[in-house]
Queue: 4 jobs
Job 1
Amino acid sequence: MTDKRLDARQREQFKRLAWPHRAVLLRTARYLTRRDNEAEDLVQETLIKAMNAIDTFHEGTNMKAWLTTILRHTHIDRIRADQRRPATVSLDACTPMELADDGTEVGIHDDRWDKPDELLNRFEDQAVIDVLKTLPEHTRWSLILVDVEQMDLADAARVLEVPVGTIKSRVHRGRRMLRDRLYEVAQRRGWFDDVKATEGSSHES
Amino acid sequence: MNPDRDRDRLDEATSQRLRQLASMPVDTTCLDQWKQTQFGPDDGQAVHRVAWLPWRSATSIAAALVIAVLIGVMSLSGTRAVAAPLELGQVHEQVIDGSLPALAATDLADAKRRIEALVDGAPRPDGDYPGSVRCCCGEALAGERLAFIKTRYGQTPVTIILMRGHHACAGNEHEMIDEQGRRFVVHHDRAGVQATLTPRQDHWVCVMAALPTDDLLKVAGQIVF
C-alpha cells in the first residue's frame, strides 16, 4: 500500500503533522516487540494507515495520541494474526525475566531505597527497557504513554480506551512492578553486597 | 516512616527514570528510507542518519578487512534482535565450522587488538582466557557489537562470546549455578552444546562448547574477571 492516492495537500499534511512523530512511534514499538525489524514493520504499517487516514485527523488535536492509537490497533491486529498462524517453535523463545507480580513490594522498607534516584539512575537505559518489556502489556502501555512519553492521563486513557482511573492504577502498579524487578536485578548484580560489606566493616570498626 | 509518602517518593523517582528513556536517540534510518521511496528525497532526513553512519562505516571496514585476510569466507547472514542461547548456538556453530568470517589470532593480546581494530565499540576481552586463542572477530548481531574468541578445552572447540548486557537472555531452559562467588546462567542445548552466561558490569560473557556442565563451568571459571 502506498500514498499514491494522496494529493499534494494530503502529502504535505502527513509530512508536516505526522512524520515528526516517527521516532516516538518507533521507540514505543520497540518496547512492545522483541525485534527491531518487527518494530520497524509495525511503525511502517502504522504510518501507511495514518497517511491514508490523514483527512480524518482534526488539526489542532493531539497528533501523537492519534498516531499512537493507530499503532496500538495495528499491534493488536498483528498479534491476532500471529495467533491464527500455525504454532511454530521460535528460535528466539526467551524469558529474560519472568517474575510474577505477587502484589508485595520488594524492599519498600529497605534502606537502600532511601535515595531512589541514585539507585534507579545507576541502571543503564537498556536495563530499564529490558525490565519494562517484562511487564504485562497493558501495564507497559500505561507506563510508556504516561511516564516515558509524558502523555496526560486523559489522552493516555483515550489511546488505551479505558477510564482515567484505570490508567492511574495501572501506572501506579506498573511503577511498583518495575521497581521490584529492578531491585532484584540490582541484587543479582551484587550492588547491595558492597553496602553490606561496608556496613559490616563499619560495625567492626 | 510514612509508607504512603515513601511510596509517592519512589513513584516519582521511578517516573523520572522512565522519562529519561525518551531522551535516548532513536535510529529512524529505516523509516527515512521508506519515506524516500514514498515521497522522494528531502533535506530533513540527513539529520537522523548521522548517529548510524560511524557504525555502518565500521561494519563496511570490518567486512573489507575480513575479506582481505580470509578470502572466500561466508559473510554473516541475517540479524537478530536478542541474543538468545539458541542464536548464540548458531554463532558458535558458525565459528566452529569456519563459516563466520574470522581472523586468526596468535594470542589474547593479538585478539584484543584485532577486535578493537575491526569493530569500534565491541566489548573487549579484558581478562585471561583458557587455552590458546585460535581466532577472533568483531561482528554484529542485530546491529549490536559483539566479539568472539575461539579456543579449545582439550580437543573440544570452545567459543567465548562477549556481548552487551541487554542482548543476552537466559532462555526458557536454564539453571542458575553459583560457583566461586559468581553466578553462571547455564543453558542446555538439545544438540549437546551448552552455554554459560556470566554478567559483567556492562556486558555478558558467554562460553559455549559441547562439554558436560562441570567442564564448561571449569572453563568459564578460568576466565579472569
Job 2
Amino acid sequence: MRYVLIDKLLEFRKGDFARAVKCVTRGEPVLDGDRYPAPLVLEALLQTGGTLARISLGPERRTVLGKVTKASFPAFAYAGDVIDLEVELVQSRPDGTMCSGTASVGDTVVGRAEFMIVILPPEMSPPLSPEIDAWRRNLARALGIPVTESDPTESDQ
Amino acid sequence: MAEQMDEQMDEQEIISKVKSCVATALGRDEHEVELESVLSTDLEAESIDYLDITFQLEKSFKITIAKDELFPQKIFQDAKLVQDGVVTPAGLEELRVRMPYANLDEFQSNPRLANIQDLFTVGLLVNYVKAKLAA
C-alpha cells in the first residue's frame, strides 16, 4: 500500500528546492483524534525530497530513503491544517542526495528533518505502480522535464 | 623543520576531520573512531553508511568522489577478478590500480572476498583523502 502525501507541488527549482502542500482532512483514518501523526509529517517531507531528487537527477530512476539523520516535531498538525513542505537539496551525487526539510502550518513549525535519498541504479529500479508512474510523468511534464515512457504492461513491484 | 611541522599538522587535521566525518555518518562519538577501526566490523557500518561517509568527506574536504571510486563494488562482480569467492591475481592487480592508497599486503596473503571489508578502515579513508588532496 502506498500513500501519496503531496497534494500539490507549489514550487520546484530543479536540483535545488521544492515546496509542496499536504492538506489534512478530518476524513483521514490515520488521524489520532484531531492530530496528524508526526511520522506522516516526516513521510510527506521525504516524499517532497524524493520527488525533488528524482525529477532533478534521474526521472526514470527509483529513489528510496537512505536514512533520516535528524528529525524533530516541535508541534502537531491538526485536521483542517494545510502543511507547507519545503525541502532543499543540500548535497547531490549521482547515487544520492542529502536533503533538509521543514514542515509548517502557518508560522508554526511542525517538523524538521535532514535525510538521505538514494538514487537506485537502473538495474535496481523496479517499475512503479501505474498510479504513481502516471503522477510522476504528469509532474515531470508539467515541469518541462523529459521522462522515458514506461511499458504499460509492467506491473507494480 | 617548520615545513615538516606544517605537513604534520596538515596530516593531523586530515585525520581529525576524517574521524569526525565517520563519527557523524555512523552516529558515533569521535573517541570511538580509531585509525585502525574497520568500518564494517568495529564501527558496524551498514551499506547505506558508506554513501553517508562519502557525502561527509565530500563536504568536509570540498572534494568530489566519483561513484564507485572510494568503495568500488563493481569489480567484485566480475568473474575474471573474483572466482569461487577468492580475488584472482588479476583482481588484486585491479585493486592496486583502483585503490593505490590501500595496503594490500595482508589481504593478498588470504585474498578471500569475505576479507575485503577488512581493508576499509578509517586509516584507509585518511590515505584516500591525502591522495585525493595531493592529486
Job 3
Amino acid sequence: MAERVLLLVGTKKGAFILEGDTTRRSWALRGPFCETWPMNHVVGDAATGTIYAGGGNEWFGPAVWKTSDFGKSWSHSSAGLAYDAGAEPIKSVWSLASGHDRLYAGVEPAGLFSSDDGGETWRHISGLSDHPSRADWHAGGGGLILHSLVPHPVDKDQIWVGISAAGVFHTADGGRTWQPRNRGTRADFLPDDQRYPEYGQCVHCLVIAPQMPERLYQQNHCGMYRSHDGGRSWESIEAGLPSSFGFPAATHPRDPSTLYLVPLNGDMHGRYMPDGKAAVWRTRDAGQSWADLREGLPQQDVYYGVYRQALATDDLDPAGVYFGSSTGALYASADEGESWQQIAEHLPAILSVETMVIRT
Amino acid sequence: MVLHPAPEPARPVVAILHGALVDLFPGIERRVALDAATVDELIDALDARWPGMRDRICDSRPAIRRHMNVFVDGRRATLDTPLKPGDEVFILTAISGG
C-alpha cells in the first residue's frame, strides 16, 4: 500500500501543503495557496482527499476554500456563512471539522455553521448563538472565536465546542440546545469568589481521546485539564508541567492516555518557550506525569510561541508529531516526539497544522 | 383600481473590478456592462453572473465591506447610491492588511 503523508499548514499569509512519505524525513513544500488570505485552519478528509481551508481576509471577508486535487486548483464559498442582517458580520472562519458526512465551521464572532454539500453552502446552527449566556460571552485576546470543534466519533447528535472566552459547550441533540461544560476549570482573571463560573472560562484548545469519547482534554488559559465524563467535570493535570499556560493540545491517534502539549512561559511573560528552550511535553498516563521532548529542537534563545491549532499528530505507527511556530518554523517528529527535525524555517506565522495520510 | 408606478427602467452601467477581486474569480472580465439602478442592484447583477461575488464585496449587515471601496462619479458610494446610464462604477480594495 502506498502512503502519502500531507501536512496541511494554515498561516497568516495563505495555506501551504508539505508532502512526504512514511519515513517522514524529507518534505516537499507547496504554496502559498488561497490567494495568501490568512488561513486559521486547514483540514483534510483522507477518504476523499479533499482539503478545506477556513479563514478570512480583511478585504473580502470569511470563506472556506476547497481543493480536490491536493492544491492545484481551489474554489471558495461563504454562501450561507452569515448571521442575520443587522448582526455583527462574520469576520473569519476559525476552525473546521468533519463528522458523520457533515462539515462544521466555527467562526468569529463565535458561532457554529454546518455544510452537507462539502462546503458549497452553509447553515447556521443557531441554537448555540441562542444560548441564554450569549450576551455574557467576552472576546479573548484573539477575538470572540469558536476555535475548537469536536464532533462525537459515534453519536452524530453530540458536539463539543470551545469558545474564547465563553468556555466549553456541548449539544446532545444536533445543535438545537447546548449546555456549558466547565465545572472544575478556573478563571483566574475573575475575582477570587468567582473563579469557577458555569461559563466564561478561556478555553484555548479542546481535544477528544481516541477510543474513549467520554475523555476530553483541554488546554486552558488558566490550567490544563482532563475530563472522564464528556466535560461534565474537569480535573487539573497541570502538575509536572513548566507552566499552566499554553495554547495547543494534540492526542495520540490510538492511545487515549497519550497527549502532547506545548506549554509557554505564562500569559503575562511573553508567551514563548519556557527559558527560551523549545520543548513539546508528553504524557503517557493521561496527565498524571509529563516528560519534555527536546532532541533536535533549538535550546537557546527561542522566543516564539505555538498557536492553538498548530500542533498535530498523524495516524501512522509510530505516530508523527508536528508543530509550527508563530515565527514560521515547522518541526516534525517521526517517532512520537522522541526526536525532532526542522522541516521549514521561513514560513509566515503558522496558525494551524493538521495531517492527512492518503493510502492507495 | 390600484395604480402601480412603472418600475424604474434598468440602466446600462459599467463595473470596473480591481485585480485582487478578479483573481478570486478566474476567467472573469475586469470591465463588465450591466443594467442596474443602484450600487446594490449592480452588485446583485455581478453576483448573478459570478456567484459568490456579493459575499466578497458586501457583508451581512448588509453594507459594503469596511476595506472595500466602491466609487461612483469619483465619490465613495454605499449600497443605496443611485446610478445613472453610462456611470462607471469602480470596485477597489482599500488600504489594509498586515
Job 4
Amino acid sequence: MSRTYKVIHLSIAFVLAVALLLLILGIQMYLEVHAIHDRMEREQLANGRREIAQAIVDVDRDIRARAERLARWDEVRQQLANPEYYVLWRDARIRADGLMTPTTDSIGLYDRNGHILAPDTGKGALPAQLPLSPPGYLARKSTSHDDLQYFFPIYADPDRRILMGYGALGFDILDELKRVRQFDFVDPDSFSLTISDHATVSMASLASPARFQSPPMRNLDRFMAAFQSALIRLTLIALFVLSLATFLIHRFMVRPLRQISNDINVMREAPGLAAEGGKSALVRIEELDNVRSSLRDYQTRVSELQLALEDSNRQLFEQAHRDALSGAFNRRAFDNDSRNLAGRSPLGRYTLLMFDCDHFKDINDQYGHAAGDAVIGALADCLQRALRAEDRLYRLGGDEFAALLQDTTREQAEDIVRRCQEQIERHDFGQYGLTMPVVLSIGVAQADPDLSFNEALRRADAAMYRAKQSSDRKVVFYAP
Amino acid sequence: MPRWLAILLALAVAQLAFGKEVTLEMPNRLIARADYQIGAADKPVVLILHGFLQTHDFHTAHNMADGLHDLGYNVLAPTLTLGVPYRNQSLACEAIHGHSLEDDEAEIGVWLDWLEARHQGPIILLGHSTGSVELLAYLSQHRDPRIKKLIGASIIEGALTGGEQVRSEMIADLKQRIGAKNNTPVSHQFSYCNRYTSTPKGLLSYLRWSPKRIIVTAQAIATPITFIMGGADQRLATDWIAQLRKTGKKIRVIEGAGHFLDGQYEFDLLDVLGEEVRL
C-alpha cells in the first residue's frame, strides 16, 4: 500500500532534490577542474624534470664543446709546451678569447703528470692536483654556489695520440643551466641540485635529485579563480532561483492545494458548508480554480443528493414505521422504540399510555369497515392533537393505541389523558354514520428508572383492561 | 689489371695529387706540420713559407702551393711552430709569443734538411710577406748550394706605425731588458698587430729586420732573388718597391694586386711564379 505525502513535503523534497542535484553538479565540476589543475601541475612537474634533464644534457654538450675548443686551441698547446708565461696568458688571454663566459668560474691547465701549471685562486679555484681521471666532472659545493669542474685531456696531435696535459673548466652549474636554456616549466630561482663536495659526478645523474618549483601557472590560476568565482555566483543564483521557486511553488501550488484540501476537509466534516477558499488570492491558478469550482459543484450536488437521500430515507422510514390508516407509528416502530428504551440504562422516568376503543368490533360489524377505519383515523387524530409534540403515538393493532411520554410526571400524564378524552368527546363521530358513542379506555403506567419496559408495558396493559372493564372509570392509572 | 689494383693506384695518385701532411720534430722538440705535394722528379722542389703568424693553410700560401704543384713542381709548405706543437691555426697577435726569428730559421733549416734527404734536385725558396724576410734571413746565414733561388712575394719588414725612429727606440729598450734578464713579455704595435705580445728576445729578433737590413741583406746574397710585389699593396711604404729595386734583384710587380696577391690577381701571381721557378 503506497504511502501518502503532503504536497508541501513533496515540494520541499523536489526543491531539495534540485538543490542537491545542483550541489552535486557543482561539486563534480569543482572536482573535475581541480583534477585538471592537479594533472596540469603534475605535467608541469614532469615537463620541468624533462626540461632540467635536457638542460643538463645541453650544459654537458656545451661544456664538452668548450673543452674541445680549448683543447684544440693552439695557444693552449703552446702553454703546455712552455708554461713560462702561463699565468699571464691565463689571466689575459682566456678572457679575451671568449672562453670565459659569465658562468665560468675558472679555466686551468695541468701538465701530463696532473700538476696544475699555476695555482688557481678565487671563486671555484681548481685543485692543484688533477682530482680524477679525465674526462669527468668534479662537484665543488660551497655556501654560495654549486660548481662543477670538468677535466679533460689535451693532446698535441690531431689523432689524440700524444698527451700533452689536461684542461679544466669550472662553472656554476645552476648559472650554466640558466644560461643554456630558457626554462618554461621550472622556476630558475628555486632550482637546486644535490651534490657533494669533491664528489665525482656524471651529468646524467644530476637531473633526478634536482629540486625545483614550477613557475606559477598564471593562466590556469586565473582560470581557477574565475571558475571558483563563477561557481560561487552560480551557486548564489541557483539558491536564489530555488528560493524563488520554493516561494512560488508554495504560494501558487502548495497553498492553493492546501486550501483545497482544507475545503475538502470542511466539506467532509460539514457537508452543508460551501468551500470558498482561494477567492481572495491576488494571483489565481486557472486549473486550481477549476478544481475548486468542480469541488464546489460536486459538493452542492452531493449535498442535494444527500438531502434527497435523507428525504427518501425519511419517507421509507415513515412508510415502514407509520400506520397507513391512522398516521400514527405502527407496531414495528413501537417495538423498535421499546427495544431502544429497554436497552437504556437507566431507563429514566416515563409514562406509558395504552388506548383501546370500547365496542369497536360492534362498530365494524354494525357500520362497516369503512366506518371503522374512519373511527380509527379520527381516534388517532384526536390523540395526536392531545399529545405533546415530543410524545409518540403508536397503533398497535385494531383499535389499540399506545403512547410513550418521556420524562412525564403524573400530573402531566393526567393532564394529557384528560386532553385525550376531551378530544374524543369533542369529535363528531356521527359524520361516519355512527349513532353510538365512541368511548376510549385508557391505561396508564408510570415507570421508575428501575422498572423494565416490559413490566411497564404489562402494567399499562393491565390498567387499560381494568378501565375497559369499568363503565364509568375509563382512565385507570396502574396501581399494584 | 685487377679492379682492386686499379682502385689502389687511383687512391695513390689522388693522394699524391692532393698532397699529404707531414710532421717533423723541430729543434724546440715540438712537432711541426707541413703540406707536402710531390711533383715531377725532374722538377725543382719549392719550399713555401707563410706570412707572419699564419700557417701553410693561409690562402696565399695555399694557392701558391697548389698552383706550383699543378705545374708539376714538388712543393713543401711547412707551418712554423711558433712554440705550438702541431700548430694549425693562425696565432693571435695577443698570444704570448715566445718564438723568435732565429727559431723560425732553425725550423726552416730542419725542413730543408728533410727535403734534401728526399730530393736530389734544386730547391727554390718562396716566401710570402714576413715569410720572405725569414727565408732571406735564413739564406743570409746558411750557404746551401742546392738552394737555387729565393722568391720573395710581398716581402715586407715588421712594420711600425711610428717609423724607423720608433724601431730604434724599441730595439734599444728591448736590448736593455734582455741585458737586465727581464724576460717579461712586452706588448707593442708590430706588423699588422696593434698589440703584439712577445718576449723581448723574440720581438727583438723580428724588429731587427728593418727595411734597410732587408735591402742590405738581399744585396749581399749571391743566390738569385726575385721579388714579386703587388702594385696596390697598401701595407707597403710608398717607396718600398723603389728601394727594393736598389738591391739589383729582379722585381716583378703585379699591377693592381694587394698584399695577398689574391682575387683576380691570383692567376697573375701563378703566371709570374711559373716563370720564376723555371730554372
